Amino acid sequence: MFKNIFAMFAVLLWCGHAFGAHPLITDDSGTQGKGKFQLEVNSQFYYDKETEEGVTTKETGGEVATALSYGITEDIDIVLGLPYQWKKIKEDRESTSDVNGFSDMSFELKWRFFEKEGLSFAMKPGITLPTGNENKGLGNGRASYGLVFITTKEIEPWAFNLNLGYTHNEYKLQEDKDANRKGIWHASLASEVELLKDLKLVANIGMERNPNKVSNTHPSFILGGLIYSISENFGLDLGVKGGLNKPETDLAFLAGIAIRFSGGEK
C-alpha cells in the first residue's frame, strides 16, 4: 500500500485546495472509501478588469490543480494538492506583471463523523506548505492552516452542501503582512440535481472575507456547471463562475477530470 501511495504522490508532483465535486467550490461530505484513490486534474481560466482613479487594470490567468485523495478508512480521506498558476497584469495596456509557476502545496484530512437518513457532517482541517515563490505572488512564503465544517443533505434527486470555514494565513514578506489579513472566513452553499442518467446540473454561491486590509467588501461569487460520469470511475465537468461584486474575479471558466481507482491488496 505504501508503495502505491508513494508512486501516486510522485505523479501528483509531476502533474501539478482541494474542494468537492469540481466545478463546485463548496465541498461535500463524501469520502473515497477505504483503500480507494481519486486523482483530479482541474483547470480554470479567468478574466478581471477594474478601473480606479482613471487607471484600468486587466488581469488574465489560470490554474491547473492536481489533487490526490486516498481513503484511510471508510470515513476518513487524506488529500494532497498542488496547483500550477499563471497570470498577467496590464495597466492601461502596459504589462506590469507576467508570472507563472507552482503555488503552495496543500495537505488536508476529511473526516465524516455523522451520517443518518441522508444527512451527514464532516470536518476538514488542512495546511498549506510554502512551495510557491512568494516573490512572484505564487505563495505565502510560510505554512498556513485552516478548518472547514461541511454539511450535506441528500433528497433524491437533489443534494445540498453547506461549507463554513476559516483559514489562518502566515506571510514571509513584510509587504504581504502589511497588505493582507491573516484570518479569512468562508461561507458557501451548493446544490446538485441529476438531469439525466450520469449527468448532473450543479450550482454554487458563496462569500469569504476580503484578504485586503483596506477593503470591507467581501468577494462573493455565483457558479453553474455540469458533471458527466462517463463511467463509475471516470468523470468530466465544466463550469462558469461569475463575480457578484467588485472584489471578486469578473469571470472564470472551469473544467476538470476525475479518475477513481483502488490501491489493490496483496
What features would you describe in this structure?
The model is unreliable at 1-19 (pLDDT under 50). This protein has a single domain (2-262), classed as Beta Barrel (Porin), CATH 2.40.160. The protein is built from 2 helices and 13 strands; from the N terminus they run αββββββββαβββββ. Strands 1-2-3-5-6-7-8-9-10-11-12-13 form a 12-stranded antiparallel beta barrel. It has 266 residues and is mainly beta. Strand 12 and strand 13 (251-262) form a beta hairpin. The chain has helices at residues 2-15, 174-179; strands at 36-52, 55-71, 76-91, 94-102, 105-116, 119-129, 144-155, 158-168, 183-196, 199-208, 220-231, 234-243, 251-262.
Descriptive tags:
266 residues
The structural domain count equals 1
- State the separation between the terminal residues, measured CA to CA: 8 Å
Question: For the record, what CATH class applies?
Answer: Mainly Beta
The biggest sheet amounts to: 12 strands, antiparallel, barrel
Reconstruct the topology from this structure.
Elements: H1 2-15, E1 36-52, E2 55-71, E3 76-91, E4 94-102, E5 105-116, E6 119-129, E7 144-155, E8 158-168, H2 174-179, E9 183-196, E10 199-208, E11 220-231, E12 234-243, E13 251-262
Antiparallel strand pairs: 1-2, 1-13, 2-3, 3-4, 3-5, 5-6, 6-7, 7-8, 8-9, 9-10, 10-11, 11-12, 12-13
